[in-house]
Write a structure and sequence with these properties.
By secondary structure, the protein is mostly helical. It has ten helices and no strands. Helices cover about 80% and strands about 0% of the residues. The two termini are about 20 Å apart.
Length: about 230
Protein backbone atom coordinates (compact mmCIF):
# COMPACT_ATOMS: atom_id res chain seq x y z
CA UNK A 1 0.00 0.00 0.00
CA UNK A 2 1.51 3.32 -1.04
CA UNK A 3 1.31 6.47 1.05
CA UNK A 4 -1.06 9.22 0.01
CA UNK A 5 0.67 12.10 -1.73
CA UNK A 6 1.24 15.20 0.36
CA UNK A 7 -1.24 18.00 -0.06
CA UNK A 8 1.53 20.62 -0.03
CA UNK A 9 4.17 21.04 -2.70
CA UNK A 10 7.02 22.55 -0.69
CA UNK A 11 8.89 21.49 2.42
CA UNK A 12 8.13 24.85 4.04
CA UNK A 13 4.35 24.58 3.53
CA UNK A 14 4.40 21.01 4.81
CA UNK A 15 6.28 21.95 7.98
CA UNK A 16 3.91 24.85 8.66
CA UNK A 17 0.93 22.54 8.37
CA UNK A 18 2.45 19.79 10.52
CA UNK A 19 3.47 22.19 13.29
CA UNK A 20 0.03 23.78 13.31
CA UNK A 21 -1.59 20.37 13.73
CA UNK A 22 0.89 19.32 16.43
CA UNK A 23 0.40 22.43 18.60
CA UNK A 24 -3.35 22.79 18.10
CA UNK A 25 -3.21 26.50 17.36
CA UNK A 26 -4.01 29.16 19.95
CA UNK A 27 -6.94 27.23 21.39
CA UNK A 28 -4.87 24.11 21.96
CA UNK A 29 -2.21 26.10 23.79
CA UNK A 30 -4.80 27.90 25.94
CA UNK A 31 -6.42 24.58 26.83
CA UNK A 32 -3.05 23.37 28.06
CA UNK A 33 -2.37 26.52 30.10
CA UNK A 34 -5.69 27.17 31.89
CA UNK A 35 -5.66 24.06 34.15
CA UNK A 36 -2.20 25.00 35.43
CA UNK A 37 -3.34 28.57 36.09
CA UNK A 38 -6.34 27.19 37.97
CA UNK A 39 -4.18 24.91 40.11
CA UNK A 40 -1.78 27.74 41.00
CA UNK A 41 -4.47 30.29 41.90
CA UNK A 42 -6.61 27.84 43.91
CA UNK A 43 -3.62 26.48 45.82
CA UNK A 44 -2.37 29.97 46.70
CA UNK A 45 -5.84 30.95 47.91
CA UNK A 46 -6.66 27.78 49.85
CA UNK A 47 -3.34 25.98 50.45
CA UNK A 48 -5.38 22.81 49.90
CA UNK A 49 -3.85 20.48 47.30
CA UNK A 50 -6.91 18.30 46.78
CA UNK A 51 -9.06 21.35 46.08
CA UNK A 52 -6.48 22.79 43.67
CA UNK A 53 -6.09 19.49 41.81
CA UNK A 54 -9.87 19.00 41.69
CA UNK A 55 -10.38 22.50 40.28
CA UNK A 56 -7.78 21.96 37.56
CA UNK A 57 -9.39 18.63 36.62
CA UNK A 58 -12.82 20.30 36.50
CA UNK A 59 -11.55 22.99 34.12
CA UNK A 60 -9.92 20.41 31.86
CA UNK A 61 -13.14 18.39 31.88
CA UNK A 62 -15.14 21.45 30.83
CA UNK A 63 -12.70 22.02 27.97
CA UNK A 64 -13.10 18.39 26.96
CA UNK A 65 -16.91 18.64 27.06
CA UNK A 66 -16.86 21.74 24.86
CA UNK A 67 -14.70 19.95 22.30
CA UNK A 68 -17.07 16.98 22.30
CA UNK A 69 -20.14 19.20 21.87
CA UNK A 70 -18.44 20.99 18.98
CA UNK A 71 -17.31 17.65 17.53
CA UNK A 72 -13.69 18.75 17.41
CA UNK A 73 -10.51 16.89 18.24
CA UNK A 74 -10.13 16.26 21.97
CA UNK A 75 -6.44 15.34 22.00
CA UNK A 76 -5.30 18.67 23.46
CA UNK A 77 -7.82 18.43 26.33
CA UNK A 78 -6.78 14.83 26.91
CA UNK A 79 -3.15 15.97 26.96
CA UNK A 80 -4.07 18.48 29.68
CA UNK A 81 -5.78 15.77 31.73
CA UNK A 82 -2.78 13.46 31.30
CA UNK A 83 -0.52 16.29 32.47
CA UNK A 84 -2.67 16.79 35.57
CA UNK A 85 -2.60 13.05 36.25
CA UNK A 86 1.20 13.00 36.04
CA UNK A 87 1.35 16.04 38.31
CA UNK A 88 -0.96 14.29 40.80
CA UNK A 89 1.31 11.23 40.73
CA UNK A 90 4.33 13.37 41.63
CA UNK A 91 2.32 15.07 44.39
CA UNK A 92 1.31 11.67 45.75
CA UNK A 93 4.92 10.48 45.53
CA UNK A 94 6.12 13.51 47.51
CA UNK A 95 3.43 12.87 50.13
CA UNK A 96 4.34 9.19 50.43
CA UNK A 97 7.91 10.24 51.18
CA UNK A 98 6.80 12.48 54.01
CA UNK A 99 6.93 15.75 52.09
CA UNK A 100 5.10 18.75 53.49
CA UNK A 101 2.18 20.42 51.71
CA UNK A 102 4.69 22.90 50.28
CA UNK A 103 6.87 20.08 48.97
CA UNK A 104 3.82 18.46 47.39
CA UNK A 105 2.78 21.71 45.69
CA UNK A 106 6.27 22.09 44.24
CA UNK A 107 6.17 18.45 43.09
CA UNK A 108 3.24 19.32 40.82
CA UNK A 109 5.59 21.43 38.67
CA UNK A 110 8.41 18.89 38.56
CA UNK A 111 7.08 16.87 35.57
CA UNK A 112 6.97 20.01 33.41
CA UNK A 113 10.56 20.84 34.29
CA UNK A 114 11.71 17.31 33.53
CA UNK A 115 9.73 17.33 30.28
CA UNK A 116 11.22 20.60 29.03
CA UNK A 117 14.72 19.52 29.98
CA UNK A 118 14.40 16.09 28.41
CA UNK A 119 12.67 17.42 25.28
CA UNK A 120 15.33 20.09 24.74
CA UNK A 121 18.16 17.60 25.19
CA UNK A 122 16.54 14.99 22.94
CA UNK A 123 15.79 17.46 20.13
CA UNK A 124 19.25 18.98 20.38
CA UNK A 125 20.75 15.52 20.01
CA UNK A 126 18.79 14.95 16.79
CA UNK A 127 20.40 18.09 15.37
CA UNK A 128 23.88 17.24 16.60
CA UNK A 129 23.67 13.77 15.06
CA UNK A 130 22.48 15.17 11.72
CA UNK A 131 18.96 13.75 11.93
CA UNK A 132 16.84 16.74 13.04
CA UNK A 133 13.39 15.96 14.38
CA UNK A 134 11.53 18.20 11.93
CA UNK A 135 12.83 16.05 9.07
CA UNK A 136 10.74 13.15 10.31
CA UNK A 137 7.63 15.36 10.05
CA UNK A 138 8.32 15.51 6.34
CA UNK A 139 8.95 11.78 6.15
CA UNK A 140 5.68 11.01 7.95
CA UNK A 141 3.74 12.67 5.13
CA UNK A 142 5.80 11.75 2.08
CA UNK A 143 5.71 8.05 3.01
CA UNK A 144 9.49 7.62 3.24
CA UNK A 145 10.74 8.48 6.74
CA UNK A 146 14.38 9.00 5.72
CA UNK A 147 14.40 10.13 2.06
CA UNK A 148 14.61 13.79 3.11
CA UNK A 149 18.06 13.11 4.57
CA UNK A 150 19.59 12.76 1.10
CA UNK A 151 19.00 16.47 0.39
CA UNK A 152 21.49 18.65 2.25
CA UNK A 153 19.37 21.75 1.76
CA UNK A 154 16.41 20.07 3.46
CA UNK A 155 18.62 18.75 6.28
CA UNK A 156 19.97 22.26 6.94
CA UNK A 157 16.47 23.72 6.93
CA UNK A 158 15.16 21.02 9.28
CA UNK A 159 18.12 21.50 11.64
CA UNK A 160 17.45 25.24 11.92
CA UNK A 161 13.75 24.63 12.53
CA UNK A 162 14.47 22.00 15.16
CA UNK A 163 16.85 24.34 17.01
CA UNK A 164 14.00 26.88 17.09
CA UNK A 165 11.86 24.21 18.76
CA UNK A 166 14.66 23.48 21.25
CA UNK A 167 15.01 27.13 22.31
CA UNK A 168 11.69 27.63 24.20
CA UNK A 169 12.13 24.39 26.15
CA UNK A 170 15.73 25.22 27.02
CA UNK A 171 14.82 28.74 28.19
CA UNK A 172 12.00 27.40 30.39
CA UNK A 173 14.32 24.88 32.00
CA UNK A 174 17.11 27.40 32.60
CA UNK A 175 14.77 29.96 34.20
CA UNK A 176 12.46 27.68 36.17
CA UNK A 177 14.87 25.11 37.63
CA UNK A 178 16.61 27.62 39.97
CA UNK A 179 13.21 28.72 41.32
CA UNK A 180 12.05 25.15 41.90
CA UNK A 181 15.33 24.24 43.58
CA UNK A 182 15.16 27.39 45.69
CA UNK A 183 11.65 26.55 46.89
CA UNK A 184 12.62 22.95 47.56
CA UNK A 185 15.77 23.86 49.50
CA UNK A 186 14.12 26.65 51.52
CA UNK A 187 16.12 29.54 50.12
CA UNK A 188 12.78 30.74 48.68
CA UNK A 189 9.43 30.40 50.44
CA UNK A 190 7.31 27.66 48.92
CA UNK A 191 4.44 30.08 48.29
CA UNK A 192 6.71 32.41 46.38
CA UNK A 193 8.23 29.56 44.38
CA UNK A 194 4.83 28.05 43.49
CA UNK A 195 3.43 31.45 42.49
CA UNK A 196 6.51 32.20 40.38
CA UNK A 197 6.44 28.78 38.72
CA UNK A 198 2.74 29.11 37.96
CA UNK A 199 3.17 32.55 36.42
CA UNK A 200 6.28 31.54 34.50
CA UNK A 201 4.64 28.37 33.18
CA UNK A 202 2.00 30.58 31.59
CA UNK A 203 4.25 33.46 30.58
CA UNK A 204 6.85 31.10 29.11
CA UNK A 205 4.31 28.69 27.67
CA UNK A 206 2.40 29.76 24.58
CA UNK A 207 4.07 33.21 24.31
CA UNK A 208 7.49 31.57 23.92
CA UNK A 209 6.00 28.95 21.63
CA UNK A 210 4.40 31.63 19.47
CA UNK A 211 7.71 33.50 19.38
CA UNK A 212 9.45 30.35 18.22
CA UNK A 213 6.76 29.75 15.60
CA UNK A 214 7.10 33.35 14.38
CA UNK A 215 10.84 32.81 13.92
CA UNK A 216 10.14 29.55 12.12
CA UNK A 217 7.57 31.23 9.87
CA UNK A 218 10.12 33.89 8.97
CA UNK A 219 12.68 31.22 8.15
CA UNK A 220 10.19 29.19 6.15
CA UNK A 221 9.04 32.23 4.17
CA UNK A 222 12.58 32.74 2.86
CA UNK A 223 12.74 29.40 1.01
CA UNK A 224 10.58 27.24 -1.21
CA UNK A 225 12.09 23.77 -1.26
CA UNK A 226 10.13 21.37 -3.52
CA UNK A 227 9.07 18.02 -2.08
CA UNK A 228 10.58 15.32 -4.27
Amino acid sequence: MTASPPTTDTVEALVRRQLGEALGGKRGMVEAAVPTLTFTVVWLLTRHLEVALGASVAIAAVELALRLVQRQTVKFCVNALVGIAIGWFFVHLAASRGGSADDQALAYFLPGLLYNTGYAVAMAMTCLTGWPLVGFMIGSVTGDPTAWHTDRQVVRLCSRLTWLLVLPCAVRALVQWPIWLGGHSGSLSAGTAVAALGVLKLAMGWPLQLGGLAAMSWLLARNHTPIA
